[in-house]
Amino acid sequence: MRAPDAPSGWLRSRRMRRIAAATLGCALASTAAVGTASTATAASGTTLTVAMDSSGVDTLNPFLAYFNGALNTFGMVYPSLNSLDREGKPGPYLAKSWETSSDQLTWTFKLQDGLKWTDGQPITAEDAAWTFNLIMTNNDAAKANGSLVANFDSVSAPDPTTLVIKTKQPQANMLYVSIPVSGIPIVPKHIWESHVADLKDYKNDSYPVVGYGPWTLTNYTTDQFEKFTANKSFKLGDVGAPKYDNLVVQVFKNSDAAVAALKSNQISFLSGLNTNQYNALKGDSKLQAVQEAGNGWTAVEINSGAKTRSGKPMGTANPLLADDKIRTAINYAIDKDKLVSNVLGGLGQVGNGYLPPAYPQWTWKPSADEAVSYDPAKANSLLDAAGYTKGGDGIRVDSKTGKPLSFRLGIHSDNSRDTQISQFLKGWLQAIGINLDIQSLSMSKLNDDLSKGDWDILMDGWTTGPDPTYLLSIQTCGTLPLDDGSGGNTDAFYCNPDFDKLFAQQVATFDPNQRAQIIGQMQDMLYKANNDIILYYANGLDAVRKGSVSNLISGKPDGNGLYPVQSVFWNYLDATPAAGDNTSSESHTTLYVVLGVVVVLVVVGGVFALRRRSTAGDRE
């Protein structure tokens, strides 16, 4: 996975780039460990063992890290100003309350009093102010999260329990700036101020790592495991310390045994099932198979002409794709219903808007007269009218240049769904006179080509959290690369000044209904541009062994039977051994999480797992 340049947008809702190859899954075991590799020795007491995200840990320095494994670690170890509650809405953490000034430029946070870092030193507003100010003024500190404070004018701590943030412009999503995992972690000033000079090289590997999260990091062995102990002093509102004494995050490289272990009662929970696994398990009376609302999309990305921020052309895209009639025809040629049926087995929704259905407050659909549905006759008519005539081989030719409508389609070499989709696309587009040259590329090669503009069409996907600002920001002109090729974080080289104006407007709009209307206009623009043709939103698929553990799946299903997106932060806190389960230190259970590669979670005295979806900074 590539660690992208820091985005120039206001705020990333979650660093959640889709892991194209990933079949996510987690499992919990109730008997001896099965097929573990380099298993960490469990400490005394109950131990919850979870999987390392497939991205791994790039660094334990929270000012520098992008990879999901590291971000998960920081969410467990360090506090943040706010949390997201179990419904994904902003709530308290270090801050117990907050208010804004009448001009909406000053935010005053009141922090909890009496909290202490794990080394016994008091946590004060100065720790938060120092963290934010370092990111605002130090290029090394700004590497990972600089964009999150780009709109900050000043941050101060007038007293130990008061934090004041002044912004340059009103910022409606302020409560998402510092949240667990995807936001800015607050670090202890008394530990970090001595490392400012060598910040870009500081590894933060002195154990135990001083923090104030639900867990304390006590050891990390690269590509093997992380070990944590529960922070018994942790408190968040009426929520106390984790139910387990220890947490082990471990790598495991065998996915075949997970479903078999679930069926044979060796594990209690499996998340991120593929369609075949879900269908095979849902009829088992000993299991509860559930679906989560889709929090991401899979799309066809079309390069209509890569340019730098100054407007300088770059890359090797076929110039014919600059014609919107061709891009629109491609959209009409795609049978999205068939993709949902054949690729997802019906376990998903047809794609329309840019934001996924997991967050209905931002859901948008085109009007009936503007909706593009499968209509190859319409596609052919558009291309005929535009003067692209079919040759003897059935492939259309541009009458002006004599060049055929033949485009490269880049797919991920390690993604079976990409392979399936590409074969459908090749047949559908050939039927309207367009040839696709399918190029199966490694993740690194596809990323490299994308950033240089050296592509025609790519398979693409993102997931997001409840605030859509970051995902919207990657479609703004400001995320295009500079003339030297650096500084870019664009998704498809889309640039529309009118879109940018709406982007700035939605950030400053505090009324949720008005903001949703603006974001709907932005999605309408993206829909009509046909640079990202959203194919579908896949449901998350999980299975739980009944009676072995409680609080593994939070929330209640909606009218379609879909559960809300599960939260890593809360489920680690809520995980509880089922009544009657043996939680002595001698009992051993194993938790497996499959995320691209299979990773193992070993639990002593209880079972829990949580699947973390592809994240944000990791782009393929």
Automatic annotation (TrEMBL):
The keyword NADP does not apply. Keywords: Membrane, Signal, Transmembrane, Transmembrane helix, Transport. The keyword Iron-sulfur does not apply. The chain crosses the membrane at residues 591-610. Pfam families: SBP_bac_5 (PF00496). It is found in: Cell envelope. Residues 1-42 form the signal peptide. Its main location: other. Residues 90-472 form the Solute-binding protein family domain. Belongs to the bacterial solute-binding protein 5 family. This is ABC transporter substrate-binding protein.
